[in-house]
Amino acid sequence: MAEEKKESLIEVEEVRQRINDLDEKAGEMAEYIRIDERRKALALLEEQQASGDFWNDQTKAREVIAATNAERAYVQPYDQLLKTIEDARVMLELAELEEGSSQQAALADTISECVKADDYFAKLRLQSLLGGKFDQCNVFVKLHAGQGGTEACDWVQMLYRMYKRYAEDQGWKVEEYDCQPGEEAGLKDVYFRVEGNYAFGMLKAERGIHRLVRISPFDANKRRQTSFASMETVAEINDDIEVEIKDEDLRIDTYRAGGAGGQHVNKTDSAVRLTHLPTGIVVACQKERSQHMNKEKAMNMLRAQLYEYYEDQKKAEMDRFYGAKSENGWGSQIRSYVFCPYTMVKDLRTECETSDVNAVMDGRIQPFIESWLQMKAK
Hints:
alpha+beta
């Protein structure tokens, strides 16, 4: 019995130390994210929203709402973290009043509360890495088949599925704008928009060349094939950011959108392709039945891409997005996905890797994204 009591005492001390560690980390996090400043800013923003003339200027109102959500994204998880740590401390005090199996059960509940606090801390830690100007924005994504022929087109379709699964896990919405099917299978290109909090901040980590190694299902001799696909991301910018697009610089082409046959076949030239002649940037949208709506969505995408283009010119870093792009092939990949002769997904920038390639293709790419964000922060 004495030995059992001694073992319980040690466990109590371990749990107490864990709570103290969480307390210390919470204090460090408060300084790092400047929580006091954020609380004051949030209070002022909420006060503005409560005023009677808040919606008189809708552009400004949207800015205030976006700023409010940005501050709240830090304040709420931090408050939840503090509350969870305090709940764990109270539960530990109650556990110390128990004995034997009752105490063990109470301590197990306390540890569960600590795990919950760790989750809040992880959320805040990730949030602190997303401080870019447009990190909170929605994002336009383009996937493009590189070297590898039909196999590369199939690889684009696989990546598209992967990113859609990831978006679903994040609670984001995916809206396809345009796609060009491959000659035999898969997709040559696909443009889509991801709507969700910090969608650009997260998915910008995926920009680059993705390499696939597997036994090709399109090769009768079952040889191992290597294929490439590129992934580009552009933040969806706010309406108040002005990007000049002259009519004479724009070529507008309309065409018949693809889709299901039968009664659903599109009988009008509703799809729209926009070409910005000075830069050569091309965007397209065929999602809507209305040509007007497709043009509006394509213009939004073009504005976003032009903003990135001009910003890169100012910074003299044209190779980041639209200048000297890496070749969509050997030697340029950011990540390799190997299905054969072994299974491994490895990010060549951060050395983050896993052997569970199927989980990655089902959208479990958060570890790769977080490791890249941490690397950039350092």
